[in-house]
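Structure, all two chains, one model.
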Amino acid sequence: MIDALSAPGPAIGLTMAGYSTIAREAGFNFWMSLATSLGIWGLPGQVVLVSLYATGASLFIIFVAVSLANLRMLLMVISAADMMDLASHKLPLWKRVFWMHFLSITSWTNLGIAQQKYPSHLLLAYYQGFTLTIFFFGILGTILGYFLGDLLEPEFLRIVIFITPIYILLNIINARHKANRLAVVLGSILCPILFPLAGEWAILLAGLVGGAIASLYSRYDARLHSG
Amino acid sequence: MESFSSSFAWWALLVAIAGTMVWRFAGVFLASRIPPDSALMMWINNMAYAMVSGVVMLALVHPTGVLETTILEHRIFGLVVGLAVVVFTKRLMFSLFFGVASFAVAVTFF
């Protein structure tokens, strides 16, 4: 919990405040903005939701895009369960689902660091304290951020909004595997280029093409190293 | 008009929550069943990274809302400073501060 209180907590609070201002601009009311943070708790998916909502995309597109943006949850949950040796705690399914609802990029990365400091049977308790603290800050940020627009001049507001995308990009460019980082670079270049031609489908195209090239690269790289 | 758009927003929200929860649930369900090093997993993971970064870059290059009042060069400048600091120091919060601060200086004074 102390770890969470230092830097990541307030940063998540600010980031979620940034999200909340975007949500408000997109036309979400306060309860919708709060429900998004509570129910999704994954910033990229939340940003996709409000941005697509603002552009008037269909429910199907929103579902596909948010699902794809949050697909990483699948891998993060599997990897986190593995790090904490979740199976050894013999929790019922609903409790495992409950705790994994709070998993975020920040708590997942921090779990990787904590893994080197604490024995694995203590990691679940560490994760619970850390992730709930982060969640608390995130929800607080969502609530305060929604009304920040009334208090702040647009000159400040645009700086607060700038925090969110930069935070995510700086976070994912540090991905552990080289192929993941390549995917990040390809995705960030392809998507804005394809957008004027393909609209919101640019996201899917960038994901498919960037993901495929990065995967081919890592196969080639693995073969190179195995001899 | 207002009630239609607001009920559509709730539907969009519900669909988005479902689209997220399905992965968390599947993750819990599959946690003990899937070898994390398989080629399929690697591909899905790479695709997720590419897509997330694409979406976020979209918000920077083709923004909606208040960010539209800033110019692309300033936004890219803030991003490049942040990236340079994170690549050299590996410190996320530190580089976040520098990236956002450079953007703030750029939009305020230039």
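The CA atoms of residues 164 and 170 of chain A lie 10 Å apart.
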